[in-house]
Amino acid sequence: MADYNINDVTRRVQFTGNTGLGPFAFSFEILTETDVAVYKNTTLLTLTTDYTVTINANGTGSITLTGTGSGTALISSDVLTIIGARNLERTTDFVTGGDLLASSLNEQLDGLVVMLQQLDEKLARSLRYDSFDQFNSAVMPAKADRLGKYLQFNSTTGDPEAGPDSTDVTTLADIATDIATLADIEDGTDATDAIQTVAGISSDVTTVAGISSNVTSVAGNSSNINTVAADGTDIGTVATNIADVNTVAGISADVTSVAGNETNINTVAADGTDIGTVATNIASVNTTATNIADINTCATDIAAIIAAPTEASNASTSASNAATSESNASSYASSAASAQSAAETARDQTLAAYDSFDDRYLGTKASDPTLDNDGNGLVAGALYFNSTDGVMKVYTGSVWVAAYASLSGALLVANNLSDLGDASAARTNLGLGTAATTASTDYVAVTGDSMTGDLSFGDNDKAKFGANNDLQLYHDGADSYITDNGAGQLYIGAYEVPVTDYSVEIGNPANNLTYAGFNHGSSVDLYYDNSKKFETTNTGVEVTGTVTATTVDLGDWTITESAGVLYFATGGTNKMKLDASGNLTVAGDVTAYGTI
Fold first, then answer.
1. How far is 76 from 413, CA to CA, in rounded Å?
2. Residue 308's CB: how many other CB atoms inside 10 A?
3. Cα–Cα distance between 549 and 362 in angstroms, integer?
4. How far apart are CA 340 and CA 344, in angstroms?
5. Are the C-beta atoms of 160 and 142 separated by less than 8 Å?
6. What mean pLDDT is predicted for residues 285-313?
7. Would you say the C-alpha torsion 195, 198, 200, 205 has a positive or negative sign?
8. Fewer Cβ atoms within 10 Å of its own Cβ: the N or the C terminal residue of the chain?
9. Where are the alpha helices (DSSP H) in 261-292?
10. How far is the CA of 474 from the CAs of 462, 481, 487, in angstroms?
11. 369-400 in b/e burial notation, b at 16+ Cβ within 10 A?
């Protein structure tokens, strides 16, 4: 039996770092060494094989790793978890009519408290409402409503409800990846801040968007564009002389005519030496650059064309990234499905454990319930607190009874009455007097003993002797009695022959007046006012003083006094009388001087 308190502590503790084999202490109380489970990282260790348990006198204890199997010494990356793991069961019952021992009841109640603390610790690691929170319902959405959905909380009530479709969330996750890429480009991660640059030329982007078909055509002619890009130096030269180009743009009609005269131009091109000469005289050519604005338009288009391959490359990269994101999303979706399944399993187990707990601890009620909190029949061992009586009650399987008895004011065996505030008053209340603190040798044993003090009886309290209370000694408040109610005789015997005192003497309470004295084997003496008046002898009696009698029985003869006359009778007939005057009357003959 656990002779210690089950204190209010969390039944879970963890250790980290290079802490070796232990011991690793836990501050919660246990009843047996199987009331704890030990995890090293995510591995459940085995008692005896991987660790041993030591239980202290107060129920707390420690575990020590064995150094073998999974119970090797902790290193810096390890986490050791010790958690309460008493089986949620009750395998013994109190037998009707049997002993209800405090030790057994304490052990049962301690086990229940341990299991409740375990459930409390497990619930603390679950998703739950806080004590002060407000809610209407904690019920999950129905299966059909939550299939393929994420769980969300209502924006008004905060209650759980079915959220967005998981497919939509996955799509959004893919978009989020692209957004993250764009954010990297913008925040300098890619060292270009290209989005900000594009925002600065948004009008040009809009223009390009308006000629997207042309851009597509240009993208299709990437080889020629690359050729133009390779001639960037010449284009730079043209840009430097943009005023002249603008002048040429002003005569675009002529340029168009020149374009129509391609053959002749090619001929001119073949005469490069002469053109070089013209270039030497470029000032004259500059004069023709009045309408260069049109050439600027061409330059703008050329810039877009030059950027087109980069944009095409970026588009290709984005497409590749999208494919990768799609693949990753599929993997994430699979992992999410697995996680959801595990979460649902854990949720179901938690709900099952909570339902089991809810079936056994019914909370506070004003009277004995007949059904559990789900409306089902009660189970043996169920508990609830009766708010009317202020008592915790347990269901035996047929009736509700108090789950525990308060020890407030109780006398504990181990304290030997030392826990009482006033032992003297306690003895008086118990009717013990000083008996509770007096040695047993100071009292008379029923099997026989010796008295060294007085034995007092109250009025009409009798000292009774014999199997049928034959001889009784008592005082009724006025008189004292020695009563023999038995069938035999009452004997008063004295064996000793005293030298100066009677063997048996009857006298006053002060023992200074003698009423009668009895000598062993000799006389019996009678006294008047402590003066002996009558004594038996070996021949008869001796009387001191006057003997007064109305009749003296002498055997065959009697002498009777009546009205001053003595009558002498035999056989019941008076034969002679003597009156007060001395006259003698004889019935019958009188012989004088005869011989007797």
1. 51
2. 20
3. 100
4. 6
5. no
6. 49
7. negative
8. C
9. 262-270, 272-280, 282-286
10. 5, 6, 20
11. beebeeeeebeebbbbebeeeebebbbeeeeb
Beta carbons of 150 and 161 less than 8 angstroms apart? no
Residue type, 441: T
What's the predicted TM-score (pTM) here? 0.32
Helix axes 232-240, 242-250, angle to 10 degrees: 80
Residues whose CB falls within 8 Å of the CB of residue 218, separated by 6 or more in sequence, listed in order: 225, 304, 305, 308
CA 477 distance to own-chain centroid: 65
- Mode of pairing for the β-strands spanning 361-365 and 524-528: unpaired
Contact (Cβ atoms closer than 8 angstroms) between residue 35 and residue 29: no
Bridging pattern class, strands 565-570 and 573-578: antiparallel
DSSP lists the bridge partners of residue 149 as 165
Identity of the highest mean pLDDT range in 4-8, 49-53, 211-215, 247-251? 49-53
Structure tokens at 456: 């007092």
The one-letter amino acid code at 180 reads A
Q: Supply 398's token pair.
A: 């047929």
Structure tokens given for 195: 């989005």
> Which range is least confidently modeled, 50-54, 208-212, 492-496?
492-496
Backbone angles phi, psi at 170, to 5 degrees: -65, -45
Query: Is a pLDDT exceeding 90 seen at residue 260?
Result: no
